[in-house]
């Protein structure tokens, strides 16, 4: 940068250098870009867990197989809870775009309840498996299963905590631009979890019951 350009950029006032350009110098939509980068890093985590499960899926070590321990009817109900929560979140986004605070709060609350129902059934499944002796220590198959499904469950738990926090922020401050950005970021996160779960349901449960 030339000396003339630098002179145009700053001025001297009482012996202090001060930039002529005021205000926020952060890049536009920097938060959304950062969140996309986070989602890409999460993709790598789940890719590693899927790869680990793919290697250990048939390592039963004399323990139970997927056909013996998976309850597809329960998992199908759980899957419907999560997929429905994605739809209700879409309704919340439509209400937010129409600047309807009450509608946004209502559909976000429904989404949270469906997410909690999903998490509750998943915890019940884990409890049942441990009760019958199918623990992570039993075999490589169950170790990989608990790691993959448990990591997804932790993400859903984090999403519910985030959603509840967002409900309080919306209730207090309304549909300000910062809150709209947060709702949009959580929307990307929630739909990302749905996509991962479709992979889990297909690759782990459906293929797991095959002979």
TrEMBL record:
Keywords: Cell membrane, Electron transport, Membrane, Oxidoreductase, Transmembrane, Transmembrane helix, Transport. Residues 1-209 form the Heme-copper oxidase subunit III family profile domain. The chain crosses the membrane at residues 35-57, 69-92, 104-124, 144-168, 189-210. This is Cytochrome bo(3) ubiquinol oxidase subunit 3. It comes from the Bacteria. It is a multi-pass membrane protein. The keyword Hydrolase does not apply. Cytochrome bo(3) ubiquinol terminal oxidase is the component of the aerobic respiratory chain of E.coli that predominates when cells are grown at high aeration. Has proton pump activity across the membrane in addition to electron transfer, pumping 2 protons/electron. Heterooctamer of two A chains, two B chains, two C chains and two D chains. Its main location: membrane. It comes from Alcanivorax jadensis T9. It holds the Pfam family COX3. The keyword Transport applies. Belongs to the cytochrome c oxidase subunit 3 family. Gene3D superfamilies: Cytochrome c oxidase, subunit III, four-helix bundle. It is found in: Cell membrane. The lineage of its organism: Bacteria, Pseudomonadati, Pseudomonadota, Gammaproteobacteria, Oceanospirillales.
């Amino acid at each position: 940068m030339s000396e003339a350009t630098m002179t145009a950029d700053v001025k001297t006032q009482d012996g202090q250098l001060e930039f002529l350009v005021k205000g926020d110098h952060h890049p536009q939509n920097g938060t959304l870009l950062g969140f996309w980068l986070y989602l890409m890093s999460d993709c790598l985590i789940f890719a590693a867990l899927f790869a680990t499960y793919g290697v250990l899926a048939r390592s039963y070590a004399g323990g139970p197989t997927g056909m013996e321990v998976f309850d597809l009817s329960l998992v199908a109900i759980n899957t419907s809870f999560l997929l429905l929560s994605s739809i209700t979140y879409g309704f919340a986004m439509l209400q937010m775009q129409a600047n309807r605070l009450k509608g946004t709060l209502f559909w976000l609350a429904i989404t949270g309840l469906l997410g909690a129902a999903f998490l509750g059934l998943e915890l019940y499944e884990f409890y049942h498996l441990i009760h019958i002796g199918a623990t992570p220590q039993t075999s490589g198959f169950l170790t990989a299963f608990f790691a993959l499904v448990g990591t997804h469950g932790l993400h859903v738990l984090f999403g519910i905590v985030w959603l509840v926090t967002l409900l309080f922020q919306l209730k207090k401050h309304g549909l300000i631009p910062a809150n709209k950005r947060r709702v949009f970021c959580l929307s990307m996160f929630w739909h990302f979890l749905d996509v991962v779960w479709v992979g889990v349901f297909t690759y782990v449960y459906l293929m797991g019951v095959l002979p």
